[in-house]
Amino acid sequence: xxxxxxxxxxxxxxxxxxxxxxxxxxxxxxxxxxxxxxxxxxxxxxxxxxxxxxxxxxxxxxxxxxxxxxxxxxxxxxxxxxxxxxxxxxxxxxxxxxxxxxxxxxxxxxxxxxxxxxxxxxxxxxxxxxxxxxxxxxxxxxxxxxxxxxxxxxxxxxxxxxxxxxxxxxxxxxxxxxxxxxxxxxxxxxxxxxxxxxxxxxxxxxxxxxxxxxxxxxxxxxxxxxxxxxxxxxxxxxxxxxxxxxxxxxxxxxxxxxxxxxxxxxxxxxxxxxxxxxxxxxxxxxxxxxxxxxxxxxxxxxxxxxxxxxxxxxxxxxxxxxxxxxxxxxxxxxxxxxxxxxxxxxxxx
Length: 349
Fold this sequence. Notes:
The protein is α/β, with parallel strands linked by helices. The protein folds into 2 domains: 2-126 and 312-325, ATPase, nucleotide binding domain (Nucleotidyltransferase, domain 5, 2-Layer Sandwich); 135-307, Nucleotidyltransferase, domain 5. It has helices at 41-45, 52-74, 93-109, 119-125, 127-130, 170-180, 188-194, 219-235, 242-268, 283-296, 313-325; strands at residues 2-7, 12-22, 28-39, 83-89, 114-118, 138-143, 148-155, 158-164, 272-276, 300-302. The strands form 2 sheets. It has a 5-stranded mixed sheet with strand order 3-2-1-4-5, with helices on both faces. α6 (170-180) runs parallel beside α8 (219-235), α8 (219-235) runs antiparallel to α9 (242-268) and α9 (242-268) crosses α10 (283-296).
């Protein structure tokens, strides 16, 4: 099955052509034929974060030509596609509307099925390209700039959220701490790099793992603790080593993640752990999870290719295949949603 997929949930416009099927053993056969991405980072850097109105306009300016480029890269035409897919939620509403409405027009004009896809589920599905032997059930940690959730994936279209952040997402926390230290947006990548040069025990920080029976996180308190510390040093004109801050913050984040994942794996009796989302490219988190799974000895860890961690349309196409197989097809009344709509036919249960 050939799927033309579109992604425009935040500050990256992406169009991809993917070839999807299932092998006789039930494992996904996923192939990326093209995956074009137009980043808006230069547009938002001056503001220190994503400006929704600017993001929406930038999507509208490039989505048509980017889709044409993706089709050309794959050596195919829209008429050769079996379906059109687009991220419908969650995300920035204006940005989402650009992709959804463009997909609706393409699908209607070419008499093709229209498949709405959840952005979070798409991040998880990116792993099917990297790991041909991965299939549900498994536990997934989705960590990005806008989302941080632990999901129990019982089937390709069955997602049960067992834990989530109650405030800031991991990526958001990284970027805000980096901004206070004067690093350009997005600062998470630079935080990851300089953390290797610092002392992870230099600053004692609170855990983001909420101390109750849930599997939830609160990264706002951790972020605020670092920022307050930095502001105090600034007011007293005391110099600090940014690498020590980055290392200490990274250590607190990874320890918090592992604490809740350890409980979640036992509660769900899962032996497969999947990492997904933009923050899945963070080398400290990847290394910490690898060491944790090696130490436990009973957990198989699946890490996505770093190139597929960020927002991209190929991951949307991968999840669209399974959505289509369950007859979850939309019509031209499809609308985008900034959050997971409660009446949606394919919710995160």
